[in-house]
Specification:
InterPro entries: DHS-like_NAD/FAD-binding_dom. This is Deacetylase sirtuin-type domain-containing protein. The chain has 15 helices and 10 strands. It is of the alpha/beta class. It folds into 2 domains: about 280 residues, no CATH class; about 90 residues. The chain has a 7-stranded parallel β-sheet with strand order 3-5-2-1-8-9-10, sandwiched between helices. A hairpin with a 6-residue loop joins strand 6 and strand 7. Helix 4 packs across helix 6. The longest helix has 22 residues. It is globular, with a radius of gyration of 21 Å.
């Protein structure tokens, strides 16, 4: 039995309508043309704070606000927060508040961009993953496929959950589960289809492994007990801008209710050169990702350019990938190297990084590769 691990980058979701990481700042400012912005005073206040930070602290011209790279925003903020240092005229405590403002704007922008998504190829990929994992019901030792992704969006998550729900038998809570490879609880206490993967296997069901290395838009976490709460079909992290939710377990177990120590929060790793991997659940996901890579006979990178700045994932790949692994790299036609400038393209980074393992490169895009290789 061979095992294939898929590693998804931003390019996986772009054909469905998701913005590139470089386009996230523009996506934020596109919100100003929506009714959501016009009707919501909280969102307007967030924009005021964001624009003030860009203009007064980063000294960005008003006409260039859409072009500021998120790395240039979050890296200095996070460094100052870690060192408890002020950033120009802003004290550390205030920096944390500004970070949360920008954090929420990004999530809401993504939510708006993905309201109407072309997910046909994602649904087909979900069908393939379920076909490969459903045999675990009869043989729990089968483990042929898993997915690692750096994306926050829940296009694949939702597609998997819809299809798994259709497999559910009468009087059963679930037949299979989306397995984030960490300990999860359902945000809706009455939704019993959300369970940890090991629990599902113990009940004679099956799990589809989807390890989200940078967090997910449908996760909220409790800062007290560190539980991750999950809800499908709704990008709930965006809704936290407008609605407060608290950990129901901690509310039950402790006397203090509805205070900040129990308030559920989004838990996305922002585009920064100082990613914080210290969260317990994130650590667990990365540990399991290392195991998946160590067991992989084939690795398929889809829409991931292996950037130098993504050193956490690069070191995990360098440390855990087998010597004789087969590697496919799926990119778009725009990523194909131009003669004389090969050094600047993703293909050169892959060849240099993997050396004698010699990756295979495909430039027909995500849809074409999945259609031809996952039947």
């Amino acid at each position: 039995m061979s095992k294939t691990v898929y590693i998804l980058g931003a390019g996986f979701s772009i054909p469905a309508g998701a913005p590139t990481q470089a386009g996230l700042t523009k996506a934020i400012f596109d919100l100003k043309a929506t009714r959501l912005y016009t009707d919501n005073k909280i969102l307007q206040q967030y924009f005021e704070k964001f624009e003030e930070f860009l203009e007064r602290q980063l000294l960005t011209d008003k006409d260039d606000l859409k072009d500021v790279a998120l790395e240039d925003i979050f890296t200095p903020i996070d460094r100052c927060i870690i060192e408890n240092a002020s950033y120009r005229s802003i004290e550390p405590k205030k920096l944390i508040e500004i970070r949360e403002v920008i954090y929420n704007l990004i999530i809401v922008a993504l939510r708006e961009k993905l309201k109407v998504a072309d997910t046909g190829y994602i649904d087909e990929f979900a069908d393939f993953l379920i076909k490969k994992t459903q045999p675990k019901i009869d043989n729990p030792q089968l483990d042929e496929v898993s997915v690692l992704t750096t994306n926050w969006d829940i296009l694949l998550d939702n597609s998997l959950q819809r299809k798994l729900k259709n497999l559910k038998k009468p009087n059963e809570d679930f037949e299979g589960v989306v397995d984030y490879c960490c300990y999860v609880s359902s945000l809706d206490k009455y939704d019993h289809s959300i369970k940890p993967g090991l629990y599902a296997l113990g009940k004679g069901k099956f799990n589809v492994k989807l390890l989200k290395l940078h967090g997910s838009m449908n996760w909220l976490h409790c800062p007290k007990c560190q539980r991750v709460f999950v809800k499908f079909y709704e990008k709930i992290a965006g809704d936290i801008v407008f609605h407060n939710q608290h950990c129901r377990h901690c509310k039950k177990n402790y006397t203090e209710n509805n205070n900040n120590s129990l308030k559920l929060r989004s838990n996305l790793l922002m585009p920064t050169f100082l990613k914080d991997l210290n969260n317990f659940q994130i650590k667990l996901i990365w540990q399991n990702a290392g195991v998946e890579l160590a067991e992989a006979d084939k690795i398929v990178f889809i829409g991931y350019s292996l950037p130098q700045a993504d050193f956490e994932l690069r070191q995990l790949l360098s440390r855990m990938v087998k010597d004789n692994v087969e590697i496919d790299v799926v990119l778009s036609k725009y990523d194909k190297p131009v003669s004389g400038y090969e050094w600047a393209f993703a293909e050169n980074r892959y060849k240099s990084f993997f050396g004698n393992r010699k990756p295979n490169f495909y430039y027909d895009g995500v849809k074409e590769y999945l259609r031809n290789n996952n039947r």
